[in-house]
Amino acid sequence: MSEGFPPERRPRWAAFVIAAGLAGLAAMILVDAAGLKQDGGYAGVGPADVPRLIAYGLLLLAVMTVVAGLKGDLPRPPRQAPAPVLWIMGGLIGQLALLHVAGFVISGALLFGMTARGFGQRPLWKAVAVGFVLALVIYGVFDRLLRLNLPGGPLELLIFRG
Amino acid sequence: MESFSLLMQGVSTALDPMIMLYALIGVTLGTAVGVLPGIGPALTVALLLPVTYGLDPAGSLIMFAGIYYGGMYGGSTTSILLNTPGESASIVTAIEGNQMARKGRGGPALATAAIGSFVAGLIATLLLAFLAPQVVKLALTLGPREYFALMVLAFVTVSATFGDSALRGLTSLFIGLALACVGIDGLTGAARLTYGVPQLMDGIETTTLAVALFAIGEALAVAALMDPPDGMHRVKGSVRMTREDWRRSWKAWLRGTFIGFPIGSMPAGGADVASFLSYAAERKLAKHPEEFGHGAIEGVAGPEAANNAAAAGTLVPLLTLGLPTTATAAIMLAGFQQFGLQPGPLLFVMNAELVWGLIASLLIANVMLVVLNLPLIGLWIRLLSIPRPWLYGGILLFATLGTIGVNPSPVELGMLILFGVMGYGMRLYGYPVAPVVVGLILGPMAEQQLRRALAIAQGDWWTLASTPVSAVLLGVSAVFLVVPMLMRLRGRGAVLSQVAGDAD
């Protein structure tokens, strides 16, 4: 994927954000490790020690990422279109919120429709309709035939109850 | 000849109609995902893991292996006709293959790729059958120290050796290792990083992480890019190869096989590395090196044979040592664990029928694949005309289906979204995704071996390098870590970044 990044020098604040994220992850691990009962046994190495080592590794990588960021050594992503990303994220978050209220088929139809809309499919209602049919088929095959337990809502009850 | 009789028993298992059906589903799906850009074998196996929960273990594992093989076949089609590799191991195929297609020689290019894949798959699967029992014998002599050293080697080669930055590769690996700490510690039962959330007690699901990184991260990255994709080159004329094509191809197939298999079977990178090295070898040995870059058939034949041979080779450490060296192998390991099977030397004793059935099925799958990919090639090309909105809508629907099927909780879906966004960010800034998955699945295993080794030696850290085998393995790991860094410092990193790949 590296060919898409033109070598361009600008302040690499992204590297500092990444480094902060790594350091934050390390801090979470260290705080958690401090709360664990140390029970090393014969090994002298308990449940907290390996996470600690990993946290130190993350801290070191965070420092190196800052250094790399200062030198401008981080690929520059190509220009991103925000709208498609927001459509897809909306579909995913919508499914998360609606799954247990509306069931798999309706939330899945919305996810499919909004993703397709993000990729340029118009109008939205048509994409959702296609998604609805697909989600219905998937529910029928996976929940009924393959016994995968998918959450059902009022619609699934109505169609598949009999 | 012990292997031979075991393999024959395996063939009788593999000829069971149900098992053949699983293999057929596997290779068909594998070819389809290989052809479609944006989904690779790793993602497909991850998507199917939850679906196969209630199915026959042997059949499911055979299906997964079929997907891996099929992905290697199908990837070449997209490379040749579209100049967009369907999966990472076909990147070099695109160099010569697409040039051939532009000159109207797409047919022979597809043929040499498919027949080369067949030859390589056949030889490499037989090598797997004869090598595996030897490695098992060796593996029985290895203790926790040696296993830990092997895993360190796998960590290094997966993250730091190839790709354009050791820093970013190692960062990905450590994110995976950090995620691996979540859950109940296998040796003491202490709950780590769970914050009282019951869903986190079991740790982070490999499938959730893999699906999020590969499917959602990829979908977001592709959606946000707005380049029109390259046009497709129609296959003109027949796929038949001329006598000259055959003459130039067969040596490349064999060389590709014998480059690919060892690379796949050592913890030294996957099929993408093998295909790149094979391309380099063909270019050096060619009688007409000036044709390279303008459609040299050897440049398609060699790498395609090499990536199939490497896929078979990857199964050697996976089955005999329980050591995954690629993202697909890591997810297949999760598949074994889902059925309560632990790959490793004991698998060959406890589940001999399953292992040999799996290996024999690969031989049969290989025959199915050459049939699927030569006479039926037109069908696969039609797959490429699915509009992208429908394709990615379907991928996301299936991605969430897998997660919801395992665990329909908002926590699990929330993690899927979170890791999906992380995958998108990693793609933006050139962080490889595969080391995260390998870190998540190998991390706890490495930790257990480390602590076992230290317990045996009563806490003496020098024990890790105290046997010749473990010392050599750790030494090799250090070389694989340091040498590429020096190469990059001297400005020779271009070679390494070309070898980098992700999706398998």
Q: Could you please describe the fold and organization of this structure?
A:
The complex is a heterodimer of chains A (162) and B (504). Chain A has 162 residues and is mainly alpha-helical. In chain A, 67% of the residues lie in helices and 0% in strands. In chain A, helix 1 packs antiparallel against helix 2 (49-70) and helix 4 crosses helix 5. Chain A is flat, with a radius of gyration of 24 Å. Chain A starts with 12 loop residues before the first helix and ends with a helix. Helices cover 73% and strands 1% of the residues of chain B. Chain B has 21 helices and two strands. Chain B has a two-stranded antiparallel ribbon. The longest helix of chain B has 35 residues, at 106-140. Chains A and B meet through helix 1, helix 2, helix 3, helix 4 and helix 5 of A and helix 8, helix 9, helix 17, helix 18 and helix 19 of B.
Proportion of residues in extended strands of chain B: under 5%
Strand order of the largest sheet of chain B: 1-2
Shape of chain A: flat
Mean pLDDT of chain B: 84
Strand content of chain A: under 5%
For the report, how would you describe the main beta sheet of chain A?
A: none
Assembly state: heterodimer
**If you compute it from the alpha carbons, what radius of gyration of chain B comes out, rounded to the nearest whole angstrom?**
22 Å
Summarize the helices and strands and which ones pair or pack.
The complex is a heterodimer of chains A (162) and B (504).
Chain A: H1 13-34, H2 49-70, H3 82-102, H4 104-118, H5 124-145, H6 154-160
Chain B: H1 2-14, H2 17-35, H3 41-51, H4 57-82, H5 91-102, H6 106-140, H7 144-161, H8 166-180, E1 183-184, E2 191-192, H9 206-224, H10 243-265, H11 271-285, H12 298-321, H13 327-338, H14 345-350, H15 352-373, H16 377-383, H17 388-406, H18 410-428, H19 434-456, H20 468-489, H21 493-499
Antiparallel strand pairs in B: 1-2
Helix pairs in contact in B: 1-15, 2-4, 2-15, 3-4, 3-9, 3-13, 3-17, 4-5, 4-6, 4-12, 4-13, 4-15, 5-6, 5-12, 6-10, 6-12, 6-15, 7-8, 7-19, 7-20, 8-19, 9-17, 9-18, 10-11, 10-12, 11-12, 13-19
